[in-house]
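Late entry, evening session. Most of the bench is empty. Finally got around to the prediction I had been postponing all week. Sequence below, unchanged from the version circulated by S.P.
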Amino acid sequence: MGSEGPAAVTIHVTGFKKFHGVSENPTETIVSNLKEYTKKKGLPKGVILGSCSVLEAAGQGALTPLYRTLQSALTWKDSESSSSGRIIWLHFGVNSGASRFAIEHQALNEATFCCPDEMGWKPQKVPIIHADGGISCVQKTSLPVEEITKDLAKKGYEVIASNDAGRFVCNYVYYHSLRFAEQNGTKSLFVHVPLFLTIDEETQMKFAASLLEVIASLCQ
């Protein structure tokens, strides 16, 4: 075992479907095309690309499929050998007003939706998980956000580290995912991307592939 080198990192990826004001969500395109893209370009060393799922842009009403998706990574882990390494959830969401990529440090235990989600839910100052306490509770990723951001910037991408994932569906999903990761020995990261009008599709696909590479290199 000792001579085999570092175990691969399995990265499962999610994006979102359309939602109010965003009729074409770039993350749906990125995630739907990522397997084909990495097949053509080659997967970075040390990466196993797991599931690529597109989620409903909804909070409470979409919890069951979200947890089914998160749980599937554990089933994947059990079906692989024990040497298959670590599991990471990588979530992509769009920030339609952004001009660059943002790697999110944390999620807040607060659902305050600026518009109804795709199932018509519009909570205001509601704790995402009541058992965690008030809306000021925070879940932080255990991944090295600052290093990830620096490495991506070195590759020429316009990218920042962020402490504010908003209060909409992105933050809602990230909070649940971080909590799930903590309880199940996996890791989770959320990344906001701009619209394709701001940064074109090809650049965003390259960014997604570079992100897989950077995450794997920092997790070896």
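Two things to note before I forget:
The beta strands are 9-16, 47-55, 87-94, 101-104, 106-108, 138-140, 159-162, 187-193.
The helical segments are 26-41, 63-79, 145-154, 169-184, 201-218.
Will write this up properly tomorrow.
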